[in-house]
Known about the structure:
The chain is α/β, with parallel strands linked by helices. It folds into three domains: 8-185 and 240-249, Rossmann fold (3-Layer(aba) Sandwich), CATH 3.40.50.980; 281-451 and 472-493, Luciferase, Domain 3 (Luciferase, domain 3); 496-627, GMP Synthetase, Chain A, domain 3. It contains 20 helices and 28 strands. The strands form six sheets. An eight-stranded mixed β-sheet has the order 7-6-5-3-4-8-9-20, sandwiched between helices. The longest helix is centred in the N-terminal third of the chain and has 25 residues, at 160-184. It is globular, with a radius of gyration of 25 Å.
Amino acid sequence: MNSRPDTIPKLLRNVVSNIHPESTTFLIYKKDEIWEEISYKQTLDNADYISAYFLEIGIKKGERIGFILENSPEYIFYDQALQQIGAVNVSIYPTLTESEIEYILNDSQAKTLLVGNPFLLKKILKIANNCPKLIRIIPAFEDFGKHVQRNDIQAGIVSLADVMAEGKKCYDEHKKALDIARESVLPGDLSSLIYTSGTTGVPKGVMLTHQNFVENVKADLEQIPVIDKNDVFLSFLPLSHVFERTATYHVCITAGCRIAFSQSLELLARNMAEIKPTVMSCVPRLLERIHDKAIKTGTQDGGIKAKIFLWAIETGKKYREIKEAGKSPGLVLSGQQKLAEKLVFNKIKEKTGGQLKFFLSGGAALPQNVGEFFGNLGIKVLEGYGLTETSPVLAVTEYHRQIFGTVGRIIPGIEVGIQDVESKKITTIQTHDSFKEDFECDEGEILARGHCVMKGYWKKTEETDQVIDPDGWFHTGDIGRFYKGNLKITDRIKNMLVNAYGKNIYPTPVENTYLKTPKIEQIFLIGDKREYITAIIIPPKETLQEVFGFDEEFFARNEPFIEDKEIRDWITEDVQKLSNELAKFERIKNFIIKRNPFSIEEGELTPSMKAKRKIIEKKYADAINKMYLSEGGEI
Length: 635
């Protein structure tokens, strides 16, 4: 075995050669209320049987193979099976619309598609005949027949269980060819096509190689060496997204960690308590919800309980700040911190299973106050930053050095530059090795160069040339700067609002300021070419039900916006307070209250939960324009 594995299948096989016996548990999933365990041997055997079937039916190196399923052991079996014969993973977000799925299948020319559940199969059957290259649909469940009501589907349908059974029968016949195929996969070969549409435009297939993934995960582990073979990851973010694929799946097949699959987002809290994970990849919204619930639980009854909670949080803050300054907290504060741990912090930590080393947060900016809150509790949250096109990690917080409001240090082996938006001059280039704790610079567009950068966009040369310049720099479209040696993200260039007076406003930091109140779950800033800033605000459904007593019928109404003075006054109270933290030109002067959150299903969010600005502004144009009819706004 290669001492330095350089492809995805070699990473997993390196674990059983050098880290764990093949009988060791690798995957954990829940079936009929029982957590089942799958060993490395079972995983490799199942992958080999699927590979043998692929070879039997003539699938060749470089062929694109589709996935549309939730996180599960089957995802790992299937991915390992195709990776080791040099085929290409085309993972499709389960939440995409039928037309978007159809586009991806046709653009990638995927002939084979693994489908995870009956709901997704129904989606696929509606568009299957519009995908002429699709000749094989593989449901990952047994009783698929009762869901196939039509007999005019051109593609053949065979269950994954049958695929593995047939592959097992012909495995011996194809074993030698499989071994040759596995060794023939090269680092520069295409491993995956991940389609990303961003907030505008037609989806683009990001071409990521084995080298992109392998070098990225090795750099991540070098940056966070506290991850080891005894760790248990709880996986709930979609493996169709590059963040979960690298930060959980690829980390685990490199370091020898176990992966437990959460049943659903709704059951995540229960699954955390049952599995007791040591590491979890997550998005900021999960941490915001934990933060909001902890504060609500700690303070809602008032009295001595609320006083103890607030005292504990303040004690944790003092303790954290002294430790971060490199000083000793002293006996008194240390004693107070231990008491706060016993009375408050441990109860919150128990909700995560009580064994957590850290959360790894990515996909969007984590509000600084939320990161600091977890720091006050003694719960580590390491922030990471990157894009699908950078496979994905460019920077991540070091375990022993955290600067809240930043996304950490540049990972080993790459360069990150800051380019002045107007002059296009690169003002600084930083690497992992050039790190200095006191380094700071002006903001500009973030550029990246090195092993992390994609091969390009699938069949889109012009679009590739627009983002990767002749010097090899990938232009992220994000604005940021270095602060205390760490990378700090400001916003997307495309998100920037320029008001009627020429003032540049980046929405994300402004929105994060207003998100400090538990009365706001989502907020969308408006103000480009306008005299002042307005917003669409969505309060949490649960909070509206508790405070105002609304039933489900209220949220099912057709009117998208709530026109209730009492609710408006209730939100305005906090908006006015938080506005004092912002410059005058950044403050919200008016807002409308949306009844239900923006969603992927409604086409308002990307699969990675970013707002589609143009679509939202067009969809709600009438309501937005009405906000600007009252001179100077209403707040």
